[in-house]
Amino acid sequence: MLTKDYITPNTLYVNKNLQLSSKKIIPFTTRQRIPKLRTVGLSIVPLALTADLTVLVYMILLSAATLICSFLIVRAGKLKQEVESKTRELAEQNNYRQQAEALAEANKVLFDVAVEGVGLGVFTWILATREISYNQKWASIMGYNLSEIEQNSTTWLSHIHPEEVSNVKSNIIFFLRSGEDHYQFEHRVRTKSGDWKWIMAYLKVQERNEAGKALKVTGVHLDIDDMKAKQLELHKITRELMHSNTELQKFAYITSHNLRAPAVNLLSLSELFNFDKPDDELNREIINKIHRSSRLLNDTLNDLIEIVSNKPGCTETKEDLDLAEETDHVLNSIEYLLKQEKAEINVNFDDVPQIKYSRKVLHSVLLNLISNALKYRSTDRQPVINISSYQLNGLNYLDVKDNGQGIDLNRHQTKIFGLYQRFSRKPEGKGLGLFIVKSQIESMNGTISVDSKVDQGTTFTIGFNKFEYN
């Protein structure tokens, strides 16, 4: 049996004329309350309530959709703001990046202009792989195009002057181990044409690992060949001036000593001369002594003139000389003397056939040394003179060796090249030759040394300066 009750104030409202059952239509006015139906022991859900629930679900879904749309609209607004903010931020970053790129490009142009203007050869060295990236200017300094060189450390190291390879490697190792950020040194490199050029190397560490070990080094090579040539020329002139000053002091001492004695004798003799009795016997003796002193004074002046005339100047012309030809020229000038003494001459210039030197000085040196070998020959054997050239430690040498009387070096080592020093009783010797030879050779930035044994012979060794030969 059905009981009738009414839903509480939370009663749902539906449209009128909703179907309550399949047999009977119960009319309801709009917003009329829906009665709650009950049965004893059994609950029955009316169809009208099901329809009402459907409407309710639709309304809930609609409300939820409305809320979701509202949320989405709000969220979309926020997203729009975030997108706009992010867009502005990205636009600013892009603008900053473009400005940075433009600045970097401008700096690169300025750097390239500076590099080209100063003449800097730049390279980057990856130490682990030994790979080096050179720029075009570096290759140009060496006389190459960039495409002609390999991008590795061997390209640089293989062009270093043999005398400086060890020093350059030591500098690089010291720099990498020292922990210093930069280092510089000078050395010579061989260009494509085969010439030697001075460069200054500047190294700077660009990257290190956590232990502080250098990983990447940037380097600069600057062509300082012209500056170095001027520096060497200045050094050479300074050395020549110092040497000339020393020689001038010696010359002044010798001149004053050698000229003073005959001058004092002449003055004293002139004071003793009796002008009142010219025919006096004492006057005749005084005249003889005056004549002897005058002759000595004249000889001294001639010796000094010879020394000065044989001394080369700072501007002495250097030429490419063939040693065999120049030696033949000197031997032909004393051919009669060589035949008279039946001297045997042996020459060997295979190792160093040519030198860059002064022809005048070379002739004077050879003439003096060969003449000395003949002058102080041994009377017990035929004179033999050996003239040869060779190279040792990058320097060229010329030996003039004889089998003559020899010199006792224990007694005369420090006097051999002195002025008026003689080591034989032969009257033709004046002690000028070796003094002149030493002065000439040293004026040309060379050296001369002697090795001799009594009654076995003497060897004079001339060392040519390393910048004076091909």
Shape: elongated
Q: Tell me the number of helical segments per DSSP (H or I, 4 or more residues long).
A: 11
- What percent of residues adopt helix (DSSP H or I)? 40-55%
Name the structural class: alpha+beta
Strand order in space, largest sheet: 4-3-7-6-5
- The name CATH uses for the topology of the largest domain is Heat Shock Protein 90
How does this model look, in words?
Helix content is 48%, strand content 20%. By secondary structure, it is of the alpha+beta class. It folds into three domains: 1-117; 119-223, Beta-Lactamase (2-Layer Sandwich); 310-464, Histidine kinase-like ATPase, C-terminal domain (Heat Shock Protein 90). The strands form four sheets. It has a five-stranded antiparallel β-sheet, with helices on both faces. A hairpin with a 2-residue loop joins strand 11 (384-392) and strand 12 (395-402). Helix 5 (225-272) runs antiparallel to helix 6 and helix 7 packs across helix 9. The longest helix has 72 residues, at 47-118. The N and C termini lie far apart (139 Å).
Task: Give a nutshell description of this structure.
It contains eleven helices and 14 strands. The N terminus and C terminus are likely disordered.
Task: Indicate the topology.
Elements: E1 3-6, E2 35-38, H1 47-118, E3 120-126, E4 131-134, H2 136-141, H3 153-157, H4 165-178, E5 182-190, E6 196-208, E7 214-223, H5 225-272, H6 281-309, E8 319-322, H7 323-333, H8 335-341, E9 344-348, E10 354-357, H9 359-375, E11 384-392, E12 395-402, H10 409-412, H11 433-443, E13 447-453, E14 457-464
Parallel strand pairs: 9-11
Antiparallel strand pairs: 1-2, 3-4, 3-7, 5-6, 6-7, 8-10, 11-12, 12-14, 13-14
